[in-house]
Design a protein that fits this description.
- By secondary structure, the chain is of the alpha+beta class.
- Helices cover 48% and strands 13% of the residues.
- It contains 17 helices and 14 strands.
- It has a five-stranded mixed β-sheet with strand order 1-2-10-7-3, sandwiched between helices. A three-stranded antiparallel β-sheet has the order 4-14-11. Strands 5-6 form a two-stranded antiparallel ribbon.
- Strand 8 and strand 9 form a beta hairpin.
- The chain is globular and about 65 Å long.
- Bound molecules: protoporphyrin IX containing FE.
- The site of protoporphyrin IX containing FE has 29 residues, from helix 8, helix 12, helix 13 and helix 17.
Amino acid sequence: MKIDLLSPESFAAGHPFAQYAFLRENAPVFWHEEPNGPGFWAVTRYKDVWDVDRGFQAFSSEPTIMIQDPAAEAALGFGGYKMMLMMDPPQHTAYRKLIRNEFTVPVSAERTPRMNALARQIVDAVIEKGECDFVSEIAGEMPSYVIAELLGIPLDDGRELYKLTEIIHTAPEVQEANAGGMAVLKMFEYGRGVIAEKRARPANDLATKLLQAEVDGKRLDDIEFLLFFLLLIDAGGDTTRNLLSAGLIALLENPGQLAWLKADLPNRLPAAREELLRWTTPVVYMRRTARRDTPLGGETIREGQKVVMYFGSANRDPEKFERADTLDLSRSPNEHIAFGTGPHGCLGQHIARIEIDAILSEVLTRMDRLEIAGDPEWLPSNFISGPRRLPVRFKPSLPLPAGLCT
Ligand code: HEM
């Protein structure tokens, strides 16, 4: 089988599950050639992905978590600065501590009523039309509004910033030269305005808290703030959007499962959402770099080599999941690794779960005869997986007769 986990074409209709299965079976730690680089180890079994993600002593997040080395970022003049996603403990621990209290289960749960209201508003905007692009008009709206609310910026600006995220995550070969770099610069330009605004008028939001936060007794400087800002917008945007869009495709392709879910939505949604996370796995990979020679899956990783964890493959590993290639919305337990694990495990996962539940509840109760109305178009990216266009058709559900309540 031809293995190519780099070219965006391999991801043109979602994860390359056939390649993953071949690798898990035949070369679970596989040396992958890289046309413009030294090559990397592709890790595809659940157990090995788990060990690499938790084993920060052997596998570093520096200099980057992308397969390509950070020439582009260096060219933008980040100097010695980096996002916490690309730091190791103890430095990473100190930075993550600055915002982790905003993302705990109870603090995230406090946001539920507001997120439910946003979901209602999003569906209100399209329900009478009878058709829409599910990605841009529903799934993408939610995370851009939520991030905007968290940071304390206008909702419409969240939407514009989110468009920049999509450009950043699109493979460079399928868009204009340096489009990604320009999008990062635009994001920073906006972030500088946020710094000025929040310094002049501090508020009860994450942007203000970050500007007032200290690491080792020193406040974050502008660049450190901008990198946090970029990380939050980037990490929380098209991940959630893609889960919702690819998740909807999975539901519509499995009508029996969808009917099971709708028969008792409030009680069945939590398990269903976790299975959709396993099934769609929006983040394709994270890279680490070996700090020392380390054995892994029968190979020896040499110091300095790149090691790439394929979460979508780990989530279909039959050694970990019974009937791994079957969508089973009632699956329990479901120890998927769609949010990663270890020190960098997704900080926004509790918020993401609330967003997902809010949108799916609205969509599945208010949209009747929901169906796909054209070919989905997938994001040409080997890093983030999901459709970027998904035309759907539906009828507004009829209100329940007076006297009946759910
Ligand atoms: C379905 C939605 C999401 C998925 C699938 C997802 C997935 C991930 C993954 C795989 C990682 C890397 C974990 C690792 O290296 O082990 C990550 C990190 C991160 N995510 Fe998410 N994410 C989602 C939503 C969100 C949201 C909504 C936010 C914020 C509001 C967020 C914020 C972050 C941050 C800040 C990090 C970096 C954590 C660190 O470096 O310590 N994510 N996410």
